[in-house]
Design brief:
This protein is an alpha/beta fold. The chain has six helices and six strands, in the order βαβαβαβαβαβα. A six-stranded parallel sheet has the order 3-2-1-4-5-6, with helices on both faces.
């Protein structure tokens, strides 16, 4: 069984620029590449993203898939492997089973890829990312990039807060190495 790191997309790996329709509008945080290179030495990497713009009619599932594919291919060109990308197309009002903070996609990935959740992490810039991790029994790390600063006061006590994805990666690697 493998440990994993689940990553939010917008505001975590790439800048949150609203509902992105064109892959050319996607901008990586410069520290994302080094962070993901470090993490993949110990973990399988996955993306879990809420994309309510689909339900709102602002973007299509095809556009989200194209953005995810472009992101994955861009990372692959740098030697970084994302094993899978999952997205929820629903709004909160839809009360679906897959929107974070539900651990639906973490549990799905755990079954598909034989993951060890007790040694896994989630990194994101929304309280729903941290709560998703807690709901799945994995360790959340909260970023101050994207919407992170705006929602910081909504966090539960004890959540590890990091300036960016590279700081989060260093904390995770340190925990892994010191086991």
């Amino acid at each position: 069984m493998h440990p994993a790191v689940f990553l939010d997309r917008d505001g975590t790996i790439i800048e949150d620029r609203g509902y992105i329709k064109d892959p050319l509008d996607m901008v990586f945080y410069p520290e994302s590449f080094r962070a993901l290179e470090m993490l993949q030495e110990y973990f399988l990497l996955f993306i879990i993203t809420n994309q309510s713009g689909i339900s709102k009619g602002l973007i299509t599932e095809k556009e989200v898939r194209e953005i995810n594919d472009y992101l994955i291919e861009s990372l692959k060109a740098r030697g970084i492997v994302i094993y899978d990308a999952f997205f929820c197309p629903h709004e909160t009002e839809d009360r679906c089973a897959c929107k974070k903070p539900s651990p639906y996609f973490i549990n799905k990935a755990a079954k598909l890829y034989h993951l060890n959740l007790s040694e896994s992490y989630i990194i994101g810039d929304h309280p729903s990312d941290a709560l998703c991790g807690i709901n799945a029994g994995i360790t959340p790390l909260y970023l101050l990039t994207g919407h992170g600063v705006k929602h910081r006061d909504e966090l539960s006590e004890g959540i590890i807060v990091c300036d960016n994805i590279l700081v989060a990666a260093k904390i995770i690697i340190k925990k892994m190495v010191n086991k």
